[in-house]
Structures are given as C-alpha cells and as structure tokens.
Write a structure and sequence with these properties.
The protein is an alpha/beta fold and 192 residues long. It is 29% helix and 26% strand. It is elongated and about 55 Å long. The chain starts with a strand and ends in a 6-residue tail after the last helix.
C-alpha cells in the first residue's frame, strides 16, 4: 500500500482520519481557495479538494493523497468560517429555523499513477428556532469561530439542531469517512 497523506492542517480532519486506524501523515497545501466567477458550490468544493491533493503531489509522488474542502450553503449563499463572535452570531441568527447544507468535496489522488477519484458529499442540518440569548450562550460556551456555519456538531452544537439528513455525519465535520473508505478500497487499501 502506498503511504497515506492528508492534504490538510485541520485538526478535525486529522482526528476523523485517525478513526480508520491507518497510518498517515499530514501536510498543508498552499492554494488559493477563492471561488471562480459563476462557479457552483458543488464544483467549487470538488475543484478545491482536487487542487489540495495535486498541490502536494510533486513533493509526495508515491502517496495516496486525500484532499477535502467544505462549504456551507444557506439560502443559496455560501457562508464561511465566522472568525469572530459577531459574525458567528449573525450566521446563527440567519440559520435559525432554516436548513443549512454542507457540501464536502473529497479527492483521493494516487500520485504515483495519477489515478484520481473525486466526489461531493452533501449533509443538511435543520436548525431549531433559536433565540438571541441561546445563540450567545452557545457561542460563549463553545467559541466555534473556525467552523463553517458557526457550530461544532461533535460538541454542544448538536443542541442547535432539529434534525439532520445525509449519508455520513462525519462529512459535517469535514471528512466523509464512508465515501473515503469506498475510495480507499477502490485504490487497493485494506481496511479492517
């Protein structure tokens, strides 16, 4: 088996990948993550996942490289990481009583053969009706300012949801493990 490389500096993705109990290393790709004019959200996350993997393929030319990128879409608009309390409060107020869809682009690149697998995995969160006080208490408790959508579903953020829908809840955190296992197995990786 070729060594696995996670093209990410995300501690969340690293923790998720470690659940598969496969040895891997990490390296952060340096790419421009800007959307192209008129680019659809699904196309954007797939392109960025592939670019992240390809950005490392010259340095790691005998690896299976995993690239992943995620965006959140609310009312047809892409929302990103809030980076501040004020912006997180705005995002959660906008999401109150609505659905937020996460699109995760996933790429597995065999840098030795050039074989590539790419997919986009959706996951939808239906928010409860949230009061300003609930939102502010949540933000003070968890401070999810580095998370698209302004919540951590693996923590207290789950209390903000009415329901969820999708094939893999891990995709909400940034790495859809069910689809990744399919890709790894197609690349010849044996997973217990």
């Amino acid at each position: 088996m070729l060594p696995l490389l996670l093209a990410s500096s995300s501690p969340y993705r690293r923790e998720l990948l470690s659940r598969l109990r496969l040895p891997f290393s990490c390296s952060a790709p340096d790419i421009d993550e800007s959307a192209l004019p008129g680019e659809a959200p699904e196309a954007l996350v797939q392109r960025l996942a592939e670019q992240k993997a390809r950005a490392l393929s010259h340095r790691f030319d005998q690896h299976l490289i995993i690239g992943s990128d995620q965006i959140a879409v609310l009312d047809g608009q892409i929302i990103g990481k809030p980076h501040s309390f004020e912006r997180a409060r705005e995002q959660l107020l906008s999401a109150s009583g609505k659905r937020l869809t996460f699109l995760t682009g996933l790429c597995l690149l065999n840098s030795q053969s050039g074989q590539i697998q790419i997919d986009c995995i959706p996951f939808t969160v239906h928010f409860r009706d949230l009061s300003l006080a609930q939102i502010e208490r949540y933000l003070q408790a968890e401070q999810p300012y580095d998370c698209a959508g302004s919540f951590k579903s693996e923590g207290l953020g789950i209390s903000l949801f009415r329901s969820t829908e999708g094939n893999d809840a891990n995709s909400l955190i940034g790495l859809p493990l069910i689809r990744l296992v399919d890709m790894l197995q197609a690349a010849g990786v044996q997973i217990p």
